[in-house]
């Protein structure tokens, strides 16, 4: 963009962010260096802190900074119910309904054969070990109602039924083709109650 | 998003980027931590490097790492012509036409009274000192053909004409309402030749 290899390197690094092309990256770099040097250093520090502190919960696989996240540490929850979601944002959407009081497993992705994302890439072995702890009796599949989310639910559901667990799916009160994160709370709450 | 204050801080820092809202920031943080830890650290380093290395050229005000940028150091250029642009990206668009062989001054912004951006905020004093170096005889105003770019050109043009300089504007071959960065090279080249 200008006479600076540091600036070029910054634009290249910003392009690694999802949804950021060459023009957006240039505009971001210009904004940071021209108008927000404080924000530039703040973002640099936040990235480093997150990269060194954020790990996966040993039980539910979500992002956390300890060995086990606060939800998994909450002993008042119902250990017989395990809800499987794709991302922390989906888990947060379910939590906001206040309807579900069991535990979660966060896949941190979904099966996506076309993109080369198979069972090993989304930690299904870790899920199966968690679901077969002897306490869980019902696994609620709350993956998104997209083609990939449905396929993921299908694969997980088949495997867990074979191992003797009761497997349910969020009721199709959730509009088909949508992503949980963007669905209103009432619809999600209703779908939880009507799970089948 | 999840059980991590480092993650929350990262999402907040990403929201300072232009055009990035809460949802985008969450998705970016998720992508970086789940799929691109290497990119996370690369971006952190690039931000720090740019923040400490990038400064403004003493002559033309663009981003550079030395005192004077490579364009200003190029002695083969025509010192009688000075082209005023809003941003380094606009300068790059003009350079790609190969038509202009004078020097530049980069405002790093534009007058925008509604946003509280006045003459002191875009370094007009630095421009006037540069334009009145005794060698410059023609100042070509190549600010964008938006309302703010036109107003900026008007203010600069009036001031420099009063100081005895010849002032021209890119010909209106450039479609009104558009930004230089997105205009095709032929149109920009034509507008340079037809400057008035
Ligand atoms: Zn957990
Ligand atoms: Zn320069």
Automatic annotation (TrEMBL), chains A, B:
Residues 80-175 form the Toprim domain. InterPro entries: DNA_Rcmb_RecR (IPR000093), Rcmb_RecR (IPR023627), Rcmb_RecR_Znf (IPR015967), TOPRIM_dom (IPR006171), TOPRIM_RecR (IPR034137). Keywords: DNA damage, DNA recombination, DNA repair, Metal-binding, Zinc, Zinc-finger. A zinc finger (C4-type) spans 57-72. CDD domains: TOPRIM_recR (cd01025). SMART domains: TOPRIM. PROSITE patterns: RECR, TOPRIM. May play a role in DNA repair. It seems to be involved in an RecBC-independent recombinational process of DNA repair. It may act with RecF and RecO. PANTHER family: RECOMBINATION PROTEIN RECR (PTHR30446:SF0). Belongs to the RecR family. This is Recombination protein RecR. It comes from Variovorax ginsengisoli.
